Amino acid sequence: MSACCFPVKREKSRNSSSNGGSSKVSSKVSSKPQPVDKNEGAQERKPRIVCFGEMLIDFVPTVSGVSLAEAVGFKKAAGGAPANVAVQIARLGGSAAFIGKVGQDEFGFMLADILNQNNVDNSGMRFDPHARTALAFVTLKNDGEREFMFYRNPSADMLLREDEVEGNLIKEASIFHYGSISLIEEPCRSAHLAAMDIAKKSGCILSYDPNLRLPLWPSAEAARKGIMSIWNQSDIIKINEEETAFLTGGDDPYDDDVVVKKLFHPNLMLLLVTEGVEGCRYYTKEFKGKVAGFKADAIDTTGAGDSFVGGIVNILASDPNLFKDEKLLREALLFANVCGGITVTKRGAIPALPYKEAVLQTISKSLNSIQH
Fold first, then answer.
1. Letter string b/e over residues 286-306, b meaning 16 or more CB atoms within 10 A of that residue's CB
2. Which backbone phi and psi does 8 adopt, to 5 degrees?
3. DSSP letter assigned to residue 69
4. What distance in Å separates the CA atoms of residue 48 and residue 261, rounded to the nearest whole number?
5. Is 321 exposed, middle or buried (0-12, 13-18, 19+ CB in 10 A)?
6. Radius of gyration of the chain (CA)
7. What CA–CA distances, in Å, run from 211 to 90, 183, 227, 349?
8. Environment class of residue 371 by beta-carbon count within 10 Å: exposed (0-12), middle (13-18) or buried (19+)?
9. Alpha helices, DSSP H only, in 123-240?
10. By C-alpha distance, which of 272, 54, 6 is closest to 184?
11. Which helix (H) or strand (E) holds 108?
12. Where are the beta strands (DSSP E) in 74-166?
């Protein structure tokens, strides 16, 4: 019997589906024993960017540089890469929606409520009455880098079915964003592929951040194969240096020739390789280059890459031809770098994601310090 998959006794919603008991959720959810019926007070605009995948609870230690066993306390924080991206988009003034599955439990309701509070359309969320919301315990090193220990045997996010995917939500979007964790297990893998198919047929730009978490895959080879299985279908891809080395079989992740030869496919609009405080590299069919990073005192790097992605795709949603203008692209990437840089200065993912005003103020201060 699975240790992390307990039935949850809750009052059955009128929206519960007959084939498995999963329920829809509105954009307004409380911690009461049932999902609220329908959206009230959510943003009126159609979502421009739909993010698909996992949402979970991160438990981040209150002190850095200790093991999980040595940690004296943890801070509870909402997380999950696709959900982080959705919240970042909304905090920057964009329009975002999230599709994924959580447990029909207090954590699941809390996560749905957090999306609602951040003006993210959560009508694509589903609640599983038999599986818990995923948990991740995070070890923080002294430099803010992390190691993860996951509790998902299985967790609700792994159990999203194809028939639970809110297709109309995807059809309204201009960008469909996803990771690779939802490709690891069925039935979520089939749901993921079906969602991508809807997005492609609807004319969405497909945005992919693999967000490699090796401990969740059966093996390193399975991870490499799974991540690359949808590589050529994606229009925009963001990876970091470690993922670059992993996906190229250990080649130098800083070698442009290696990156272009092994990772840039013919239909790709934009490939981004992030390097933390050193900034990011960009590759298009017409040009390539590097944008310097934003240096900050790192406390917790959780969510920094997601903040970066949210920053760039939000701008791209307003200007789909951004990747064709190098000057505008560099400006957008500077903005995204600052988003990620601010995020590392606080603990947790979603709690640390910056608002547009903070990003613009930081850029303005940086420019003024250079000029003077």
1. eeeebbebbebebbbbbbbbb
2. -110, 120
3. T
4. 32
5. exposed
6. 20
7. 21, 12, 9, 14
8. exposed
9. 167-171, 188-201, 220-228
10. 54
11. helix 106-117
12. 74-79, 96-103, 120-128, 135-140, 146-151
Q: What is the per-residue DSSP string for 324-360?
A: G-HHHHHHHHHHHHHHHHHHTTSSSSGGGPPPHHHHH
Start-to-end CA distance of the chain, whole Å, equals 65
pLDDT tens, per residue, the chain with 372 residues:
333 333 333 333 333 333 455 666 543 444 443 343 334 434 444 459 999 999 999 998 888 788 888 888 998 989 999 999 999 999 999 999 999 999 999 999 999 999 999 999 999 999 999 999 999 998 877 665 667 889 988 999 999 999 999 999 999 999 999 999 999 999 999 999 999 999 999 999 999 999 999 999 999 999 999 999 999 999 999 999 999 999 999 999 999 999 999 999 999 999 999 999 999 999 999 999 999 998 888 888 889 999 999 999 999 999 999 999 999 999 999 999 999 999 999 988 899 999 999 999 999 987 765 444
**Contact yes or no for 55/157 (Cβ under 8 A):** yes
Cβ neighbours of residue 318 closer than 8 Å, sequence gap 6 or more: none
Contacts of 186 (CB under 8 A, 6+ apart): none
Backbone angles phi, psi at 302, to 5 degrees: -60, 125
Return the C-alpha torsion angle 186, 189, 191, 192, nearest 10: 160
Tokens 């998902």 belong to: 152
Q: Answer yes or no: are the C-beta atoms of 66 and 75 closer than 8 Å.
A: no
Q: What are the tokens at 161? A: 């079915």
Q: Which amino acid is at 299?
A: I
Residue labelled with tokens 């306390």: 73
Question: Residue 115 has which token pair?
Answer: 């999306």
Residues contacting residue 93 through CB under 8 Å, at least 6 positions apart? 314, 356
Task: Tokens 């990011």: give the residue.
Answer: 280
